[in-house]
Amino acid sequence: MQIIERLKPLSPTTPTNIDWSAVAARVLAGEPIDRATALAALQAPDAELLPLLAAAYEVRRAAFGNTVQLYYLMNVKSGLCPEDCHYCSQSKISHAEIEKYPMVSREEILAGAQRAVDSKACTFCIVASGRGPTERDLEHVADAVREIKETMNIRVCACLGILKDGQAEQLRDAGADRYNHNLNTSEDFHGSICTTHTHADRVRTVEEIKDAGISPCSGGIIGMGESDEDVVSMAFALRDLEIESIPLNFYIPIPGVPFANKWNLNPRYCLKALAMFRFVNPTREIRIAGGRELHLGTLQPMGLYAANSIFVSDYLTTKGQSAEDDYKMIEDLGFTIVAPPSRT
Ligand code: SF4
């Protein structure tokens, strides 16, 4: 990958003078973390990384033990999107050389679900590019979801964009367990990453999912030029929306995308962000999503002391490491993979 400009900020050195294990104890006692402490976690000096992660691990362990949930993504419709999300390789303003294709067949979606089962994933994520699904696309996905739920032991999460009235209910009735719609960033920074829809549009779809009784999945992307305060605001917005599953992406700068020159992350910062999200959302699934391999690098196993979930195999338009490497990493940590749910 050709990176045009790498912005590597200096890591802070001033001690926070915060006892991170005491923070964990307060969180575990049910006391929500305040914004100032969350920001301090994100801006902690590298010398505090291990105490910070150890504290996040206490919180993670109380909710999830040493288990890891695997998710498997399938991009069922790629590129050709009329929106202008500046970070996205599939947008109308992207010149990235990615595969572009319309909605794949029902058989291909079913084959993807089988690959997810074979990969030990507990959840199969059906992702389509676009502002939102047409009625035809929605019915097509709903049909596939129905058949997956009738024949396989796996949860299904759909991610099809902004929903129109009644579409969340259609997916619920087909058996979808979950719907993903990321907030992506803070309300304040959203105008800098997209002009064709608003943060409020995204929040509205999340609310519609919840109203329909579908488990909400929503997260974001770190490393697009936002401030630390924006990252903290996103963590609190997700908490306030009572999001059950939070995927955190670390921005992958793909050549041809407007944000292709952004690289302002280092592995320690990514770990601090995961710890901060764990403190703010102590009992929620936190998934290390896109950019895990690229930005956490050799430190990626440490991310699982704060997060409890990862994607296995590839991302939407970029490759991940092999499933075998993920299994080995989990085994080396002494953690176990959560089995898929039994079919009732
Ligand atoms: S709506 Fe989704 S697929 Fe379209 S440009 Fe934005 S992030 Fe990419």
Automatic annotation (TrEMBL):
[2Fe-2S] cluster binds at residues 125, 157, 217, 287. Pfam families: BATS, Radical_SAM. Gene3D superfamilies: Aldolase class I. The keyword DNA-binding does not apply. PROSITE patterns: RADICAL_SAM. It comes from the Bacteria. It catalyses: (4R,5S)-dethiobiotin + (sulfur carrier)-SH + 2 reduced [2Fe-2S]-[ferredoxin] + 2 S-adenosyl-L-methionine = (sulfur carrier)-H + biotin + 2 5'-deoxyadenosine + 2 L-methionine + 2 oxidized [2Fe-2S]-[ferredoxin]. Pathway: Cofactor biosynthesis; biotin biosynthesis; biotin from 7,8-diaminononanoate: step 2/2. Its EC number is 2.8.1.6. Binds 1 [4Fe-4S] cluster. The cluster is coordinated with 3 cysteines and an exchangeable S-adenosyl-L-methionine. Binds 1 [2Fe-2S] cluster. The cluster is coordinated with 3 cysteines and 1 arginine. One of its GO terms (molecular function) is iron ion binding. [4Fe-4S] cluster binds at residues 81, 85, 88. GO terms for biological process: biotin biosynthetic process. InterPro entries: Aldolase_TIM (IPR013785), BATS_dom (IPR010722), Biotin_synth/BioAB (IPR002684), Biotin_synthase (IPR024177), Elp3/MiaA/NifB-like_rSAM (IPR006638), rSAM (IPR007197), rSAM_sf (IPR058240). Keywords: 2Fe-2S, 4Fe-4S, Biotin biosynthesis, Iron, Iron-sulfur, Metal-binding, S-adenosyl-L-methionine, Transferase. The keyword Iron applies. Its cofactor is [4Fe-4S] cluster; [2Fe-2S] cluster. NCBIfam families: bioB. Belongs to the radical SAM superfamily. Biotin synthase family. Catalyzes the conversion of dethiobiotin (DTB) to biotin by the insertion of a sulfur atom into dethiobiotin via a radical-based mechanism. Homodimer. This is Biotin synthase. It comes from Capsulimonas corticalis. The gene is bioB.
